[in-house]
Design a protein that fits this description.
The chain is an alpha+beta fold. The chain has 2 domains: about 60 residues, Arc Repressor Mutant, subunit A; about 180 residues, Alpha-Beta Plaits, CATH 3.30.70. Helix content is about 45%, strand content about 25%. It contains 8 helices and 10 strands. The strands form 3 sheets. It has a 4-stranded antiparallel β-sheet with strand order 3-1-2-9. A 4-stranded antiparallel β-sheet has the order 5-6-4-7, with helices on one face.
């Protein structure tokens, strides 16, 4: 008994996540289409459409997104790309990249999330100097060994490769990102995730349970925000502390 609300809550969460993925990709396509509606003549639009299809976005959604900038959708609101900056508990620097058609709504929501979890939103430039815009590609090390991926990297314009237990991370310039991503796809490499992100120059460790909990809950809230595209941080949390916090969150998420 009592499992119904839990199951429904999880279904709702899955549906909400799927809806957000569709919405974000639609916004990215609409923005890319500003430089031309023909993907054969607009590499940015071609890449945005390709990523949307990989994420399962229906073709109808893709076509509607393009119409936002071709003039066919007369009621379409302008979509803006905005970055917000601030700090989480423990002095962790955060860059929040949003895609929005309502700046006032979005800035209020982002500020609320910072404040709710004992962080602070600052003016532009407060933390952005710690980050550089890069392309980031993640590959599953259980499906592709590091040495084989490293050999492929040497054939591309990638800037760096980092091997961890749970992923292999390839870093590129913004200009080379799509070409490097396409190279690995054509080689049959399964990509876990790929995105343009802000990569931090330096990291800061969170070693306190309460601060780690607030940080993770803040990230969860940003992830649920319909306008948030990416969140970039410079935190490091040990596997042990991360597992402890995750277990606490899971235990206290659903109350039946």
């Amino acid at each position: 008994m009592g499992r119904g609300p839990v199951v429904q809550a999880r279904k709702n969460a899955v549906n909400a996540a799927k809806w957000k993925v569709f919405a974000i990709h639609a916004k990215l396509i609409a923005i890319a289409a500003q430089k031309g509606w023909d993907p054969d003549q607009n590499p940015g639009l071609d890449a945005a459409m390709h990523k949307a299809r990989k994420a399962g976005v229906p073709n109808d959604n893709i076509e509607r997104a393009i119409k936002k900038w071709t003039g066919e959708d007369k009621d379409a609101a302008q979509i803006l790309e905005i970055n917000y900056e601030g700090y989480a508990p423990g002095g962790v620097a955060i860059m929040v990249s949003v895609l929005t058609d309502n700046k006032n709504r979005t800035v209020a929501s982002i500020r609320h999330t910072f404040t709710k979890f004992w962080g602070n939103m600052w003016e532009n430039g407060a933390v952005s100097w710690m980050f550089h815009r890069k392309g980031v590609i993640f590959i599953d090390p259980t499906k592709h060994n590091y040495e084989s991926i490293e050999e492929m990297v040497f054939e591309t314009a990638a800037e760096d490769i980092i091997g961890e237990d749970s992923y292999i991370k390839i870093i590129t310039s913004v200009d080379d990102f799509h070409d490097v991503e396409k190279y690995f796809e054509e080689k049959g490499v399964e990509i876990m995730e790929s995105k343009l992100d802000f990569v931090a120059d330096n990291e800061i460790e969170i070693d306190d349970f309460d601060k780690a909990l607030k940080f993770k809950k803040m990230m969860e809230a940003f992830d649920e925000d319909e306008d948030v595209n990416t969140v970039s941080t410079n935190e490091v949390i040990s596997d042990e502390l991360s597992a402890e916090v995750d277990a606490f969150i899971e235990k206290n998420t659903f109350k039946c």
